């Protein structure tokens, strides 16, 4: 309902870029909460099974209202089907499992380090595809990246020089790049094709492709799937909020603001994650967080300058 209110309410008076910025911010705000959920379910459910369950919830919710829209827009959707299939495989099938497999052979700081450079990949790929990026976009991107790296390194950038990289880092790098491609391929949606149809089809395709990966996880000796309140809440919250709403909002963000600017907002993810951790589990806000926030917000603001 949030995105419907935004689209039909006060957002009607805003420019497309401002709307996209709001959608992107709301999207990463929801995703920031998913890190807290991930901590809650440790030892209760295996990660790939949680991924499949959350997207299944999203599909079931979409089934309640999406089918008439999909049927009406099917002729247009067919012309955009290759992009939708790629988007579904990236967002549903690959994104979370790649993070899981990467975490088996690398450290948390390496994962965070590579994740925060995703917006840079968006800008670089856009530039290679002939979409000229302004000088302010490059400057803002670099400033925001420094702020993110400063936070990941806990205020000691020299700490990054001593990092050792493993196979998991390559997997995380692939994850960052494919998310950048996702943000680009869905930036030009054909007229007459709604996000309802796009999300339904990409969720359906992604879940089908996810079946063999989940099957592999079930066969593992350390497979866990407990039925308790924490697991049920986590599946429902991540399915409705983190999968359905957040990806819907992100899709709108890249349509309205473009992938480069939406990617700049993505830099705010570490800061929002820190705020969520402070509010709900009492992790302290330190001067490092404040300095990082100033750099990230400053970089985002600078990139928006004409």
Automatic annotation (TrEMBL):
GO terms for cellular component: plasma membrane. InterPro entries: Diverse_Substrate_Transporter (IPR051258), EamA_dom (IPR000620), EmrE-like (IPR037185). SUPFAM superfamilies: Multidrug resistance efflux transporter EmrE. It is found in: Cell membrane. The chain crosses the membrane at residues 21-42, 48-68, 80-103, 109-129, 136-153, 165-186, 198-218, 230-250, 262-281, 287-304. Keywords: Cell membrane, Membrane, Transmembrane, Transmembrane helix. It is a multi-pass membrane protein. The keyword Transmembrane applies. It comes from the Bacteria. Residues 19-151, 168-302 form the EamA domain. This is Conserved hypothetical membrane protein.
């Amino acid at each position: 309902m949030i995105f419907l209110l935004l689209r039909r309410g006060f957002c009607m008076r805003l420019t497309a870029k401002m709307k996209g910025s709001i959608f992107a911010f709301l999207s990463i705000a929801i995703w920031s909460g998913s890190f807290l959920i991930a901590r809650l379910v440790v030892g209760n459910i295996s990660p790939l099974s949680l991924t499949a369950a959350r997207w299944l919830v999203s599909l079931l919710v979409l089934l309640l209202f999406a089918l008439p829209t999909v049927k009406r827009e099917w002729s247009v959707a067919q012309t955009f089907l290759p992009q939708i299939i790629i988007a579904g495989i990236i967002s549903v099938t690959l994104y979370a499992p790649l993070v899981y497999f990467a975490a088996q052979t690398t450290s948390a700081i390496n994962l965070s380090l590579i994740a925060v450079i995703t917006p840079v990949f968006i800008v670089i790929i856009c530039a290679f595809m002939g979409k000229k990026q302004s000088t302010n976009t490059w400057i803002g991107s670099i400033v925001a990246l420094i702020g993110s790296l400063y936070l990941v390194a806990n205020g000691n950038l020299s700490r990054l020089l001593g990092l050792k990289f493993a196979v998991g880092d390559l997997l995380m790098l692939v994850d960052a790049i494919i998310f950048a491609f996702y943000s680009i391929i869905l930036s030009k949606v054909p007229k007459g094709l709604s996000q309802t149809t796009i999300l339904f089809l990409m969720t359906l395709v992604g879940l089908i492709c996810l079946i063999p990966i989940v099957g592999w996880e079930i066969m593992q000796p350390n497979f866990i799937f407990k039925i308790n309140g924490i697991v049920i809440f986590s599946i429902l919250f991540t399915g409705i909020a983190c999968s359905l709403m957040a990806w819907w909002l992100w899709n709108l963000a890249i349509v309205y603001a473009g992938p480069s600017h939406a990617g700049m907002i993505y830099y705010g993810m570490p800061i929002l994650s820190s705020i969520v951790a402070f509010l709900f589990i009492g992790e302290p806000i330190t001067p490092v967080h404040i300095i990082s926030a100033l750099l990230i917000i400053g970089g985002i603001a600078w990139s928006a300058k004409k």
